[in-house]
Specification:
The structure is a single chain. By secondary structure, this protein is α/β, with parallel strands linked by helices. The chain contains 6 helices and 16 strands. The chain has one domain (3-219): Ribonuclease Z/Hydroxyacylglutathione hydrolase-like (Metallo-beta-lactamase, Chain A). Helices cover 22% and strands 31% of the residues. Helix 5 runs parallel beside helix 6. The protein binds nickel (II) ion and manganese (II) ion. Nickel (II) ion (NI) binds next to loops.
Length: 228
């Protein structure tokens, strides 16, 4: 059994028999975030890009759990420089673990740390995570791109975590097109309603997905989970 928990924005935990994986763990500063349970221990932290709403608390959590951050070269080295554990990967690269594997896939966005002066943190990415015989795709922040078809062909996707907030990522129309390229069994929308600028009705997206594709769309509130 694999359990997916949504903490808000783009933050998820994947909990399998052999692993607890955090993705884009942003808690501090996100008033809508559900807190990380006290007994939670991350074995691995995946970070899609350097923006504060994704890198979030990753460095602190890596120090707390002693768990490595898996990120593209520049971002991983930035984390290492601040005392976190980190492993360097890049697009096309697959890391094998006891629980399964993690593959770096592209995302179309930017990646930097800072608000006035910017530290370049490499290319943004998405992740395919294979855990407990289930495959989960976290798209990161991205627009729609046709190579999502290739990502969907890598392994049958059980759950696709897709941004729908618009403005800085795909909106709902493009996320629907992404579902058609990826062909996942289940879609969970993310990266919406955190700020007014990305307010969306996820239940409208659910109607769009379920009316136009075979996929099921599950809307999670922060703190809610889904078992695969
Ligand atoms: Ni971003
Ligand atoms: Mn973002």
């Amino acid at each position: 059994m694999v359990k997916l928990t949504y903490f808000g924005h783009a933050a998820f935990a994947i909990i399998g028999d052999n692993a607890s994986i955090l993705i884009d763990p942003w808690f501090k500063g996100n008033t809508l975030a559900a807190p990380l349970p006290d007994d939670f221990k991350a074995d691995l932290i995946l970070v899609t890009h350097g923006h504060y709403d994704h890198l979030g608390d990753a460095i602190e959590l890596s120090q707390k759990f002693g768990s490595p951050i898996l990120a593209v070269s520049e971002l991983a080295r930035y984390c290492l420089g601040l005392g976190a554990k980190a492993m360097v990967g890049h697009f096309g690269g697959t890391f094998k673990f006891d629980f399964g594997w993690v593959k770096f896939v592209p995302a179309w966005h930017s990646s930097s740390v800072g608000q006035k002066e910017f530290i370049y943190t490499g290319n943004p990415c998405g992740f395919l995570v294979h855990c407990g015989e289930k495959t989960i795709y976290h798209a990161g922040d991205t627009c729609l791109f046709s190579d999502m078809k290739l990502i969907g062909e890598t392994a049958p996707i059980d759950v696709a975590l897709l941004p729908i907030g618009d403005r800085v990522t795909m909106g709902m129309e493009d996320a629907l097109r992404a579902v058609k390229l990826l062909q996942p069994k289940v879609v969970i929308p993310m990266h919406y309603n955190t700020w007014e600028a990305i307010n969306q009705d996820p239940y409208k997206f659910k109607l769009m997905v379920e009316g136009d594709t075979p996929a099921k769309c599950i809307v999670l509130d922060p703190g809610q989970g889904h078992e695969l």
